[in-house]
Every structure is written in C-alpha cells, then in structure tokens.
Structure of Glutamine amidotransferase:
Amino acid sequence: MLSMRTAYAAVYETWADWEIGHLLVELRTGRFTGVPWTVVTVGETVEPVVTMGGMRIVPDVALADVEPDEGDLLVLAGSGQWDDGRGDEFAKLAQRFLDAGIPVAAICGATAGLARAGLLDERKHTSAAKEYLQATGYQGSDNYVDERAVIGGDLITAGPDSPVQFARATLQRLGLADERKLDAYEGVFHRADPSAYPILVG
C-alpha cells in the first residue's frame, strides 16, 4: 500500500484562512482526485495562533522539526506578518523545500516574503500585482506573469483574489487531476457552472 503523501501548511498569526482553504480541503479529502493527503500544520512553535478570521489553531509541529524530504508540498498563506517584513523563518523553510525539489505553493503576502528572500528572482511567478512585489526590492520583475496563478517549476504562486486558481494550479503541479477535471473544478468553484459538476465528480 502506498504511504499517504504529506502537505505541510504553515500557520502563523493572522494567516488568511480563505486563501488556502480550497487547496487544503481537496488535498485532505481527495474527494475529486481520489488521492487523500495528510495535512500537517507547521507553526514557528507549537503555541496556538489565530487566523485572520479569528480561528485558533494549534500547530501540529514546530518549524524546526520539519524536514523537507518527509513532505511532498509546503503551503504558505498570506498574513499581516509578510507585509510587516516578517516571516523570514518560513521563507527559509520554503528555500529548503525548493532546494530539495519539493513544491512550494505561496499565495498573496507569502509571495512578498519569498520575493524578499530572492526565491522569485529566477522563477516564473505572480502575486497581487507586480508593483506589490517590486516594493520588496526583489530582482524578479522580468519573471512576473500577470495571471491568476502561475506554476514556475516547483513553485506555485497566486494573488489574494484567486484561491480557486491557486488550488487548481497546485493540483495540476502535483499531477492529481487531468486538464478536463481541473477545468471542471474551476468551473464549479469559480464560475458557478452547473454543467461542470458531473465532470468534476465523474
């Protein structure tokens, strides 16, 4: 029997619950892919944190105890910390995952944190806006792509308005669904297209 694949989801004060909700549900349940994953929350410590929506989360593990080769994905949500210039320890963790060839999915403010760490300089990426990342002083403007979500090798990025496209792109990068099912997924959850539902569940 194949061992279950693991997604590490970083959790920190004010992380944006809704930005990674679609993705985590599809990974954990496997309801449309047929491949359920284990989702492990990672905090700077194992002390509780409170999401932007006010939910109190107790991390499963501390950042110092995470080894990239024990996981199959790292997920980083936006939060106030990234815009305050914090989050360096999580950016370093992302660097370790990328160095190990393990995908990292970052949305909204997390892209700014990765930009500051130099992780977007050589990879295709997107965010809320090019100007948002340029404010970090990063050198990756030439690799900015004005799309809802972008796959740049092992890095998946998206802006804050695109949680469904973020989920779709990550499922695509992980090889969990074909293009027809991915389009149906976006059809149901973004376009509210009832004709897409039978394809999604088929």
Remarks:
- The radius of gyration is 16 Å.
- The beta strands are 6-10, 38-43, 49-50, 56-57, 61-62, 73-76, 104-107, 149-152, 155-158.
- The first helix runs from residue 17 to 29.
- The domain at 6-176 is CATH 3.40.50.880 (Rossmann fold).
